[in-house]
Amino acid sequence: MGSFAMTFRDLLLPALTYPDTTPDRALRSGVALARRLGGNLTLAPIQVDLPELRNPVANALIDLDRKARMEEARSAAAAQLEGVCGRIAAEEASVPITVAPVTAKLYEEVDEIARMSRTRDVCLVPVGPSAPESRGVAEAVLFGSGRPVALYPDDLEISPADGFGAVAVAWDGSPRAARAVADALPLLRRAKDVRILVAVGEKPTAVTGIAQELLRHLSAHEIAARVDEVPVGARPIGRLLADYVAAERIDLLVMGAFGHARMREFVLGGATQAMLDSPPCAVLMSH
């Protein structure tokens, strides 16, 4: 491999504090994932700013504004604890870290995170049952930042390491998949094993031989890869991806994300929906 190697330099890990906090395990795994991605990490605990209702009746009955201030204080305390947890994890994983708490108005937290992500290489987001609010964060960053997002299961213990062992690219020849490959090139160059997964029959473009040009492109970047063409059959695409990740021991899945607005409702593609609901491993997604 030549001497030139692109790397990520600027990573973002947001941490929620209200109504629920980002679990400690998810923070530790996020820091470990940052080590594998490479670069400097900004941990951004999001403190909530609750509006004062100034309702005399509500304040007389239940002291609503005082309760709002108490919740703000709880959010600020959680942000401090998340900062401590992040610093400890970063020291153990040898990850350069900056803790930068951010205050956002209630219900505007995900918009603030998407805005911050626009000037980062990658935003790291845990998703799963113990971090239910993070699903909205992942969607906002994926479709509102113009930058890739690294999803990871909130219950997965990721160990810090330099780079990834096995990385798989989910390839269907689409512009979204092409964007994901371009975003992932720094990681693919450092991976020990690169696979191209074609779910044959999942889309009209996902046909046998579709990955040959991608093999050529990766070779031009001095990346050796091999192709796995797997018939989708009757399996949902999410199940196929999960089965493949488990069988091949994939550390990182790279894929494009599909979503568009239809009749005031945002419609997600099947694979995108599956990864946002329950990623089988760390997943680098681009839109």
Can you put this structure into words, describing what you see?
By secondary structure, the chain is of the alpha/beta class. The protein folds into two domains: 10-153, HUPs (Rossmann fold, 3-Layer(aba) Sandwich); 166-286, HUPs (Rossmann fold, 3-Layer(aba) Sandwich). Helices cover 40% and strands 25% of the residues. The chain has helices at 24-37, 56-62, 64-93, 109-117, 134-144, 175-190, 212-220, 237-248, 270-277, and strands at residues 10-16, 40-49, 97-99, 102-105, 122-127, 149-153, 166-170, 193-200, 226-231, 252-256, 259-262, 265-268, 282-286. The strands form two sheets. Strands 1, 2, 3, 4, 5, 6, 7, 8, 9, 10 and 13 form an eleven-stranded mixed β-sheet that branches. Helix 1 crosses helix 3 (64-93), helix 2 (56-62) crosses helix 3 (64-93) and helix 8 (237-248) crosses helix 9 (270-277). The model is unreliable at 1-5 and 262-266 (pLDDT under 50).
Stretches with pLDDT under 50, minimum 5 residues: 1-5, 262-266
Please provide the ordered H/E string of secondary-structure elements.
EHEHHEEHEHEEHEHEHEEEHE
Distance between the termini: 29 Å
Helix/strand class: alpha/beta
Instruction: State the CATH architecture of the largest domain.
Output: 3-Layer(aba) Sandwich
Helix count equals 9
CATH topology of the largest domain: Rossmann fold
Q: Could you name the CATH homologous superfamily of the largest domain?
A: HUPs
Kindly estimate the percentage of residues that lie in beta strands according to DSSP: 25-35%
Number of domains: 2
Helix content: 40-55%
What does the overall shape look like? globular
Q: Sheet bearing the most strands, described?
A: 11 strands, mixed
**Rg for CA atoms:** 20 Å
What's the count of strands?
Answer: 13
Pfam families: Usp
Organism: Phenylobacterium kunshanense
InterPro entries: Universal_stress_UspA, UspA
Family: Belongs to the universal stress protein A family.
